[in-house]
């Protein structure tokens, strides 16, 4: 069989020695020092590795040497090992990794070409030793001694002689489909001689192309997207204003694979646990944040980033992981989309299909009662000091694809994991993997962290108005929203530069009988957690509501449908540009006959995407009269002077948050409405050819004109093109209104195919303007 016939994990070679080589060698395979043999490999059905075995001291590690005096001219020696890197890497979809070592995927054949001191004879003993870890041992499955003439397959690994001609011997090696992933060392034993190649490292990864691997993904387009695509988008903004932020995952770039191997070693997982993507992905969700074990990224939501890089400034994972691997110290700073981007890189690099997922109106329910309380004052302004729970405009985590053989049947497929440090799980900041099916169905008892993820997409929002009476807080329950949390759950579409809505993979349609049944099922697994409203000063008991109204136990909240037919809507009349007035309209509308008097309060605040209020901008209070089916538009206008200073002072990207409260006189009805509006910015233009030749220089220009009526201070432009040029930063200084800046990069493509160039401009006033442009590189 010719090497080109080795296609994927479904083709296992089992070839007899070539003609003329004599009868097969029937000698026993190598054993360890005590004569014990490796136990049978884990069955495909179990998918789990060995555990609990103690590793021996280093002195017990088998080492084969022979004194020079015992060697004769007729002794068989290996003079060279050719790893056939270019051929193997194409077959294993690893040709893009920037490394001089061989990178292969488990459960799939790869070829090795041995050059021998003489022709191979039937009586010669030949064995390949693959080892992983500090103290490799056969019983642990961390030392494999492979004899091409043995019919035994005790380790789950397999080796055959594909071709033998003269002093050249072509071997086909197939690793076990559940072998531990990581860096293996190779040595070749011939009789009493041992040959160790100069670069003897072989990286072994998970294999989504192999049916026997539990990360197997059958769809080729999905494998190309979720394993091989090194660029993409992370979706940010608000539920009604979603935009994709280009992100370079860069899993094949220099040092990234070694950084991921370092993280595997740092995880201190047993080698047997490295077989299992469930355990590996959970460990990586912990190590991408620096809260435990000095992982990759320091989280920072303080707005102060002097000793590091603002989370808004990153354009990809490469610089972060390269810095971490070089210094072995946490990198500052990250927020949710940065954590997710880096975790996608790590997962794809290791061979686990992964995607970044954005959840809009994402709940952080600290006591798992599936309820988030929002406290407002009489102006409708959110009281930032009271809430323990929070609702983020968006939150970004990850999905990874794998079978869950540790769970009952039916929970294979996408699993949610999250490296943003929010809550501890089993004592450290990690989250998942949690089956999406468990989240959708309300099976929140299943591991890992399903209650927390379920609440992020399903919690009900309860509004309270807080007033002071006789020195104590008085709470009035205004409204319940059961359909706003967990909106427009988004990821990049397969093979296309657009957003895909995957909300239905996480939850049933809002308000449907299945959705309410799912919540009822989830609630049945939750424990009561005390009285609510849960304010920052939670010992104060509400005075205006009965004990039943503030029961903190998880329960299905019933959203009240207004009998009056009065509705609220919030819109912005024109795009929001920094330096121009904020013009918002609150519309009070009647959809039924009758006369209604409505007391309206509306507020405008500047807040971060995590819901943290930075400044109150203004409010209105009006009485609105409606006759029959009609509507009244109430404007709310904020002058630039009221917000520009705060906008420039904030280190994070700010949103304009508008809240409206309507009380209908003569009825108990109270309505609430919120909207998060995003600023818009002038674009960056990219000038370059549509195509370019491999290893031939071309010029790429980045042009930006400040079309705003305010100066942009401390401008910085960051650009990166994977496979084209390394990340570069241009300090542009202050850019006055109307000024044009232009920066150029000389590009030298090193990889063929469609490549993307990403640029980001940051300043004090504008935290991030992103752009990307594709170019096709040909031979």
TrEMBL record:
<dbReference type="InterPro" id="IPR023608">
    <property type="entry name" value="Transglutaminase_animal"/>
</dbReference>
<feature type="region of interest" description="Disordered">
    <location>
        <begin position="1"/>
        <end position="71"/>
    </location>
</feature>
<dbReference type="Pfam" id="PF00868">
    <property type="entry name" value="Transglut_N"/>
</dbReference>
<dbReference type="GO" id="GO:0003810">
    <property type="term" value="F:protein-glutamine gamma-glutamyltransferase activity"/>
</dbReference>
<feature type="domain" description="Transglutaminase-like">
    <location>
        <begin position="328"/>
        <end position="421"/>
    </location>
</feature>
<dbReference type="InterPro" id="IPR013783">
    <property type="entry name" value="Ig-like_fold"/>
</dbReference>
<feature type="binding site">
    <location>
        <position position="458"/>
    </location>
    <ligand>
        <name>Ca(2+)</name>
    </ligand>
</feature>
<feature type="binding site">
    <location>
        <position position="515"/>
    </location>
    <ligand>
        <name>Ca(2+)</name>
    </ligand>
</feature>
<feature type="active site">
    <location>
        <position position="395"/>
    </location>
</feature>
<dbReference type="Pfam" id="PF01841">
    <property type="entry name" value="Transglut_core"/>
</dbReference>
<dbReference type="GO" id="GO:0046872">
    <property type="term" value="F:metal ion binding"/>
</dbReference>
<feature type="compositionally biased region" description="Basic and acidic residues">
    <location>
        <begin position="1"/>
        <end position="10"/>
    </location>
</feature>
<dbReference type="Pfam" id="PF00927">
    <property type="entry name" value="Transglut_C"/>
</dbReference>
<dbReference type="InterPro" id="IPR013808">
    <property type="entry name" value="Transglutaminase_AS"/>
</dbReference>
<comment type="similarity">
    <text>Belongs to the transglutaminase superfamily. Transglutaminase family.</text>
</comment>
<keyword id="KW-0012">Acyltransferase</keyword>
<dbReference type="InterPro" id="IPR050779">
    <property type="entry name" value="Transglutaminase"/>
</dbReference>
<dbReference type="InterPro" id="IPR038765">
    <property type="entry name" value="Papain-like_cys_pep_sf"/>
</dbReference>
<dbReference type="InterPro" id="IPR036238">
    <property type="entry name" value="Transglutaminase_C_sf"/>
</dbReference>
<keyword id="KW-0106">Calcium</keyword>
<comment type="subunit">
    <text>Homodimer.</text>
</comment>
<feature type="binding site">
    <location>
        <position position="460"/>
    </location>
    <ligand>
        <name>Ca(2+)</name>
    </ligand>
</feature>
<keyword id="KW-0479">Metal-binding</keyword>
<protein>
    <recommendedName>
        <fullName>Protein-glutamine gamma-glutamyltransferase 4</fullName>
        <ecNumber>2.3.2.13</ecNumber>
    </recommendedName>
</protein>
<dbReference type="InterPro" id="IPR036985">
    <property type="entry name" value="Transglutaminase-like_sf"/>
</dbReference>
<dbReference type="InterPro" id="IPR014756">
    <property type="entry name" value="Ig_E-set"/>
</dbReference>
<dbReference type="InterPro" id="IPR001102">
    <property type="entry name" value="Transglutaminase_N"/>
</dbReference>
<keyword id="KW-0808">Transferase</keyword>
<feature type="binding site">
    <location>
        <position position="510"/>
    </location>
    <ligand>
        <name>Ca(2+)</name>
    </ligand>
</feature>
<feature type="active site">
    <location>
        <position position="336"/>
    </location>
</feature>
<dbReference type="InterPro" id="IPR008958">
    <property type="entry name" value="Transglutaminase_C"/>
</dbReference>
<feature type="compositionally biased region" description="Polar residues">
    <location>
        <begin position="52"/>
        <end position="71"/>
    </location>
</feature>
<feature type="active site">
    <location>
        <position position="418"/>
    </location>
</feature>
<dbReference type="InterPro" id="IPR002931">
    <property type="entry name" value="Transglutaminase-like"/>
</dbReference>
């Amino acid at each position: 069989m010719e090497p080109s016939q080795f296609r994927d994990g479904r083709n296992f070679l089992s070839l007899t020695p070539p003609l003329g080589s004599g009868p097969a060698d029937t000698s026993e395979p190598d054993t360890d020092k005590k004569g014990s043999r490796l136990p049978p490999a884990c069955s495909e059905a179990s998918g789990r590795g060995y555990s609990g075995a103690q590793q021996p001291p280093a002195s017990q590690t088998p080492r084969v040497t022979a004194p020079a005096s015992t060697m004769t001219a007729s002794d068989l020696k290996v003079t060279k090992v050719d790893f056939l890197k270019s051929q193997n890497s194409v077959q294993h979809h690893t040709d893009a990794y920037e490394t001089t070592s061989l990178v292969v995927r488990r459960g799939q054949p790869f070829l090795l070409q041995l050059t021998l001191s003489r022709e191979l004879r039937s009586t010669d003993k030949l064995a390949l030793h693959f080892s992983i870890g500090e103290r490799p041992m056969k019983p642990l499955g961390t030392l494999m001694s492979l004899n091409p003439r043995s019919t035994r397959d005790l380790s789950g690994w397999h080796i055959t002689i594909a071709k033998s001609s003269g002093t050249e011997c072509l071997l086909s090696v197939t690793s076990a489909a559940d072998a531990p992933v990581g860096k293996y060392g190779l040595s070749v034993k011939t009789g009493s001689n041992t040959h160790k190649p100069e670069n003897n490292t072989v990286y072994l990864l998970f294999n989504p192309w192999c049916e026997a691997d539990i990360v197997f993904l059958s769809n080729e387009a999905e494998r190309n997207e979720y394993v091989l695509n090194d660029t993409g988008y992370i979706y940010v903004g608000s539920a009604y204003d979603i935009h994709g932020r280009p992100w370079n995952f860069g899993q094949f770039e220099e040092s990234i694979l070694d950084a991921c191997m370092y993280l595997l070693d740092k995880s201190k997982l047993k080698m047997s646990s490295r077989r299992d993507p469930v355990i590996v992905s959970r460990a990586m969700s912990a190590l991408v944040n620096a809260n435990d074990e000095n992982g990759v990224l320091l989280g920072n939501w303080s707005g102060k980033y002097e000793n590091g890089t603002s989370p808004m400034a990153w354009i990809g994972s490469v610089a972060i992981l390269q810095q971490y691997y070089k210094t072995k110290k946490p990198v500052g700073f990250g927020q949710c989309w940065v954590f997710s981007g880096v975790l996608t890189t790590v997962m794809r690099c290791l061979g686990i299909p992964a995607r970044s997922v954005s959840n809009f109106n994402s709940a952080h329910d600290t006591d798992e009662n599936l309820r988030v309380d929002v406290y407002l004052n009489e102006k409708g302004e959110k009281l930032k000091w009271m809430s323990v729970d929070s609702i983020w405009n968006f939150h970004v985590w990850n999905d990874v694809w794998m079978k869950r053989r540790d769970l009952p049947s039916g929970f294979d497929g996408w699993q949610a994991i999250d490296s943003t440090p929010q809550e501890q799980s089993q004592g450290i900041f990690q989250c998942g993997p949690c089956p999406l099916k468990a989240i959708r169905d309300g099976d929140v008892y299943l591991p890992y962290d399903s209650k927390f993820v379920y609440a992020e997409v399903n919690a009900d929002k309860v509004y309270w108005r807080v007033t002071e009476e006789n020195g104590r807080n008085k709470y009035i329950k205004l409204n319940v929203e059961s359909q706003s949390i967990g909106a427009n759950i988004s990821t990049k579409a397969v093979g296309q530069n657009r957003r895909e809505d995957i909300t239905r993979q996480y939850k049933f349609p809002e308000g449907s009988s299945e959705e309410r049944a799912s919540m009822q099922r989830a609630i049945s697994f939750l424990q009561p957690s005390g009285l609510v409203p849960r304010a920052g000063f939670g010992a104060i008991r509400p005075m205006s509501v009965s004990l039943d109204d503030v029961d903190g136990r998880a329960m299905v909240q019933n959203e009240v449908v207004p009998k009056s037919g009065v509705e609220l809507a919030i819109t912005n009349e024109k795009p929001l540009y920094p330096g121009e007035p904020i013009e918002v309209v609150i519309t009070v509308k009647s959809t039924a006959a009758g006369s209604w008097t409505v007391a309206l309060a509306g507020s405008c605040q500047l807040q971060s995407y995590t819901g943290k209020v930075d400044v109150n901008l203004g409010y209105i209070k009006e009485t609105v009269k409606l006759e029959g089916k009609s509507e009244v538009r109430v404007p709310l206008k904020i002058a630039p002077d009221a917000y520009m200073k705060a906008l420039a002072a904030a280190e994070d990207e700010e949103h304009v948050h508008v809240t409206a409260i309507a009380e209908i006189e003569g009825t108990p009805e109270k309505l609430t409405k919120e909207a998060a509006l995003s600023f818009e910015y002038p674009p960056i233009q990219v000038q370059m050819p549509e195509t370019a030749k491999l290893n031939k220089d071309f010029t790429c220009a980045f042009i930006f004109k400040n079309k705003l009526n305010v100066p942009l201070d401390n401008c910085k432009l960051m650009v990166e093109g994977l496979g084209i040029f390394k990340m570069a930063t241009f300090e542009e200084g202050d850019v006055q209104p109307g000024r044009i800046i232009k920066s150029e990069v000389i590009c030298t493509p090193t990889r063929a195919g469609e490549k993307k160039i990403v640029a980001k401009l940051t300043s004090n006033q504008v935290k991030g303007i992103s752009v990307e442009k594709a170019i096709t590189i040909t031979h």
